[in-house]
Each structure stands twice: as C-alpha cells, then as structure tokens.
Amino acid sequence: MMNIAPFRPPSPITFPVLLSLTCFSSLAATGAVHAAAASTLFTTESVDAVGSVGGYTSIALDAGNSAHISYHAYSGGDLRYARQVGGVWITETPDTTGLTGRNTAIALDASGDPHIAYRDETNSALKYARKSSGVWAVETVDNTAEMGRSIALALDAAGQVHILYLDYPGNLKYAVKSGGVWSFEAIPDSSVLFDMSVVVDASGDVHISYRSSAGEEMELKYGRKTAGVWTFETIESGVFLGQACSLVLDGGSTPHIAYRDHTNGQLKYAVRTGEAWMIDTVHTEALGPKFVSLNLDQAGIPHISFYVSVVTALQYAVKTGGAWSVQTVDTGGAVGEFNSLVVDTEGNVHISYKADGASLKYALSSGAVTTVGSGNRAAAMLRVSPNPIRHEARIFFDAPVSRALEVTIHDIAGRLVRTVGPVGPVSSGTTTWDLRDDRGHRVTVGIYFLRAGKVFQARAVVVR
To answer: Across-strand partners of 185?
Structure first.
C-alpha cells in the first residue's frame, strides 16, 4: 500500500551551535583557529501523521541524498517505509501481518533499494523486507525463540545482508544472507542487554558494539570479526552504562561509538586510538540522554542526535575544534524519541524521529552557518558550495545591512591565504574562489576557514 503525503513547506528552526572547519580525512583535525559562536539552520517537517506512528525509526540516504525511513505504525501495528521524491514524502506499508514492524533497521543497496530488518511481535520473530523492481518481498529470518528483541542491519560491499540481533534470555546472534541463503552464528556472549550496532568495512571485516551485563555492572563492548575469527574488548564498565550504543567507522575503519551513561546522566563518545579507547563526555543532564544515534561526515567529524526526557526535546551534538557543542533541534511535547541520524555528502544532517507522541518527523540542516550576537553585523550568513571543493567554490553571503564585506580565506593556523572581497555594498550575493592563494598558487588539500569581518564562520573542505 502506498500513500503520497501532501507537500507542506518545512518550518525553519534556528538554534545556536559552535562550528569549525574540517579537512577531507578519516579523523577530525584540530588547529589554532576556532569558529565563532554560530547557529545552524534546521528545518523540520511532518512525514507521516496518519494514525499513531513514528516508533523505532531508522534512516538511510540514497546516492542523491534523499532520505528513506523505516518505522513502526502503532495504529494497525504495521511496518511502514517513507521516501522523499521531488520534495514529497511517499509512504508504504511493506508488512501488515499481525503486530509487526518494531525495532526497525534500514540500509540501501547500490541500486538504492531498501532493505529492512524488524521484529514481528506476534510471532516473536526476526523478519526482513526488501524492495526490488518496485515490489516488496518479506521473509522470516529466525523465529526459534523470542527473536529480534534488538536489531542492527548492514550491507557489505557485495550487497550481502548482515543482521545482528538478540533473543531471550539475552543471546547475541548474527545472520548473513549470501546467494539467497541465510547462515547463522551465535556470538559468544549470553548476557547481552539490548542496544547494538553492526558495520561491515570495505575489506569485509564485521564490527559490532553492544551492552552486556557483568555481575552488578554493565559493560560496553566492541567486537570485530576478521578472517572468520571474533575478537572482543570492553570499552567501559559501570552501573547502567552502554545503553543506546551507536557504532560507525571512519575511512580508516576506526570505530567510533556514542552511548548513554545513565548513572552519571551523561552522553559519551568513544573512539579507538591505537590500542586504547579515548572517551569524551559530550553532554550531562539529569537522567541522561536516550535514543542515541551517531554518524560521521566525510571529514570524520562526529554528529550525534539524542533525546533528553527531562526537557522532552530532540538534541544534536557536534565535535569541532576539539570541543563538543549541543543544540536543540525540535521541542514541544515528547519530541525526539526513536531518533536516527545520518550525514550526507554535502555535510548536511538528516534526522528522523517520533514527535508529539504519535507522528513521524524529519529534520534537515541547511549547511548554513550564522553568527550569534551583533559583534559582526557585516556577515550574518556565509556558506560555501560545493563542499568538499575540487575546482572552484561559490561563496554565498547574507548580511543584515547593506555594506561592503571583506571575505578572506585562512589556513588552519589562521594565516591569510586569499582575499576574495570586498564585495558590495550589498546585503546578499555570491563571490567565487578558484582555490588559489593571493600569489596565484593552487592551495593544498586540507582545512580552510572563511571569514567575514572578524569572525570565522564557514567551512571549506579542499580535496584533490
């Protein structure tokens, strides 16, 4: 069944966030220059408000950076799927059998076709749905004993399906579909407590994170399967720790994990550095965050969405210049549960989430960076496109008053590289940068900062 939602213009919401500039590499870079306090513009819109919907969302992007979302409809107990087509949301119901569609996880293959793993509550089963040539095919993967109580899904480079899932009373299982046939494996840990992620790297190694019990404590664990052999390590242990863990890999297959420390009311972020784990505290609030989702942009910068039950809001964190900044994306009622985040090739952030207790919503960052305060009235907005840059960049500006702007470009140490202004007197417009310095030499690959007046505002990622 397919429904086309009427188009509703998204509502712009602006909240403060601290941003800095990045290079096109596998890890975040830091330097002497830091961004000024700034705001990222998020737009939010309703995707599906038919009945009570929006639970257990999972989001993925196709090659055109259009969003695809799997989710649960409480009304009817169905699995639903939504996709963007020309600014319009189209919703479909792949499975309506019994009470189904919980704990969804979605991935897209090279053709842009969706693959969804989910729990069939009626039959206590792990199920899998795939759309190919416009037709949904649904199958039961495992129904041996209370399967799919927590689910993670990934596709490898060959398009094979990998599903990590949990049974009752807490056995971690792993299924792979190759050549149309499912194979199954029991992961050697019988004390798993929900909350898991799976990623397959370019070489075919499988990476997983999950939360396990160890006596009176809990452990956040990381596992890797290389050449058929699993190795495991404990990242951190403590009471009520490791919940809502979300795992991603950077370009060098280094694992990054965001998770909840309920005891201390903290959102944490861990990254493997050599043989050790570096752990940051991202945010602290009473009761801590819930429904955590992590993704990296092409520069390796971590972006995290999470829900804070105390203020019932969807929040967003980003680490730039070595520091974390947090902003509210949407609020008003119970907004932000079951959130899922992904960053596109242009650095824009896409978030799906449950809102108002009964609807599916979607938030998108515009990529624009706006200055907070009145200290730099010359440049209210400065943006670069395309970004990353290979040949030439257009620089867009929007000032609150009509006046001449001096737009300058600096390297990571803050040294002046190129002056592309002044432009004006105007309130908005564009100028260009041909990736050359003031001496006419082409700049090297790396981090560059754009400044209008005295404030560093926008990012420029230069690649070969």
So the answer is: 174
Fold of 374-462: Immunoglobulin-like (2.60.40)
Amino acid present at 421 = G
Q: Rounded distance, CA 313 to CA 28, Å?
A: 27
List pLDDT tens digits, range 138-178. 999 999 877 878 899 999 999 999 999 988 777 889 999 99
Q: Print the SS3 string covering 140-169.
A: EEECCCCCCCCEEEEECCCCCEEEEEECCC
4-31 in b/e form (b: 16+ CB < 10 A) is ebeeeeeeebebebbbbbbbbbebbbbb
Please give the average per-residue pLDDT across 74-92, as a whole number: 93
What is the predicted pLDDT for the residue at 366? 60
CA distances from 421 to 84, 388, 406, 427, 430 (A): 38, 21, 5, 14, 10
Q: Could you tell me the residue ranges of all domains in the chain? A: 2-19+39-369, 374-462
CATH code of domain 2-19+39-369: 2.120.10.10
Query: Rounded to whole angstroms, how far apart are CA atoms 435 and 438?
Result: 10
Structure tokens at 230: 């699993």
CA 228, CA 202: separation in Å to the nearest integer? 15
pLDDT, residue 74, reads 95
What pTM, to 2 d.p., does this model score? 0.75
Say if residue 49's pLDDT is above 90.
Answer: yes
The label of the residue with tokens 């947090």 reads: 326
Q: Could you give the C-alpha distances from 309 to 331, 333, 336, 444, in angstroms and in order?
A: 11, 10, 9, 46
Between the alpha carbon of residue 370 and those of residues 40, 69, 120, the distances in Å are 7, 29, 45
Range from 139-148, 151-160, 210-219, 420-429 that averages highest in pLDDT: 151-160
